[in-house]
Amino acid sequence: xxxxxxxxxxxxxxxxxxxxxxxxxxxxxxxxxxxxxxxxxxxxxxxxxxxxxxxxxxxxxxxxxxxxxxxxxxxxxxxxxxxxxxxxxxxxxxxxxxxxxxxxxxxxxxxxxxxxxxxxxxxxxxxxxxxxxxxxxxxxxxxxxxxxxxxxxxxxxxxxxxxxxxxxxxxxxxxxxxxxxxxxxxxxxxxxxxxxxxxxxxxxxxxxxxxxxxxxxxxxxxxxxxxxxxxxxxxxxxxxxxxxxxxxxxxxxxxxxxxxxxxxxxxxxxxxxxxxxxxxxxxxxxxxxxxxxxxxxxxxxxxxxxxxxxxxxxxxxxxxxxxxxxxxxxxxxxxxxxxxxxxxxxxxxxxxxxxxxxxxxxxxxxxxxxxxxxxxxxxxxxxxxxxxxxxxxxxxxxxxxxxxxxxxxxxxxxxxxxxxxxxxxxxxxxxxxxxxxxxxxxxxxxxxxxxxxxxxxxxxxxxxxxxxxxxxxxxxxxxxxxxxxxxxxxxxxxxxxxxxxxxxxxxxxxxxxxxxxxxxxxxxxxxxxxxxxxxxxxxxxxxxxxxxxxxxxxxxxxxxxxxxxxxxxxxxxxxxxxxxxxxxxxxxxxxxxxxxxxxxxxxxxxxxxxx
Length: 611
Prior knowledge:
The protein is an alpha+beta fold. Helices cover about 25% and strands about 20% of the residues. The protein has 19 helices and 26 strands. The radius of gyration is 28 Å and the shape is globular.
């Protein structure tokens, strides 16, 4: 017969087996739960002495920020970027409303300092990861002093696993623990993958920046971009929602509460949406709104900028990435004026009605409404037709604000200017020239992936929509100063401009002016502009404005452009210029291009000798 000691050993072994079986069962259930839910990418530092009850202490203390993406050479921990992040839990920066900064000197009085305090705003800080050990703009090409390198570019961009493909085993996961501050007990355990099992598909993440002004279509746009995506788990949205706080609904307000309807799109993906709500009275145009949108970027692999009244095609995320990749150019930016919904998009199927696509190739100088001394390059109506280049996007000279898809470092290197209030016209040439000088190249996608509501109803009648100009009386005199800055930043203002002698404009701020006469004489005046943070919001040094103008037939001195540029852009530009994409894929080397566009109706097809 067994002794009392033997019985004790048997009972102990039995209890250990029961404990082991229960623990294994609990862990299996947790893995099953994890397989059906998106894995959180951000873990907090673990504390407390109960960690060993969940995992061994060495494993639990290994902080996992982001699943590594295996490109052959494993990413170092330094490369990992959390996803999704939120700006809501961060410390925000205090800035002065740009209308106060850009107010004309003559309109400033003893109350100006008080106005600055009155119009102080809290905004998110720009993304600047501590893992780089230096400012991110300095890290990326020394803030535009040189072209960024492939190695630098590879450090920008987070990944997330496809939640449809979780097939993990014991040992593939690390726990994320939530503790009860009162009792010290474990409240919740979730798991993240570390390292990435080969069978899990890793997805590049996409940050979608949307500026909305009192737009009742904004909620639908946000829902559509998640619902029409093949992998909605890869998307994070930053919305700058400019609304009348008493009259308007906000952009992400679901039809019913999330407690009642947790499966509503705006509830299901709310952890992937950041919203910056701004009183409409403080709204001063799309540039400032999109500036805040750039501040909300948090290291995603791609950045999409879109308007707040759009429809997306099925699997748009996979489609647009594939088109970007087909350019084989790290500095590629897919961009164009987007086709209208009514003629081109099938709402029932989520597909395209047509195979045509618009492309950017027309621009001309236009005098400023308030100050004829300033002229802008304005991109007018653009052509649309079937692609002439198949299997890759079409290289184009100009950038469009309503659709822009690029690598995330575009948002870091070419952020929207903080100090351009009341700007609408001129936004695109400012951003486009800046991006060109940083080394970016613009392409029109071969296939449209989203479509635009141009303020019409189903019968193509104009809908009444609110515009930020409704509060323009609050910001008199600001627009002219913003336009001078916009042009000054991209070297398109000129040192002096001719104006009629005696021409007076209460919005002008010039260093000299005439007494006036009736002889039709002109005099040169100098327009000053505010150069605050000009290095950050100005030009890069990879390419010059002169190269941009010479290549595309733009005469800044005479304020003229060579006509019929579209004849060159629609095929020949791509065939000629893409030969000079650098071997490392870091953009087109314009130092190897000596072509200068001339009007083909006057000079013939001068580009044919380059084909």
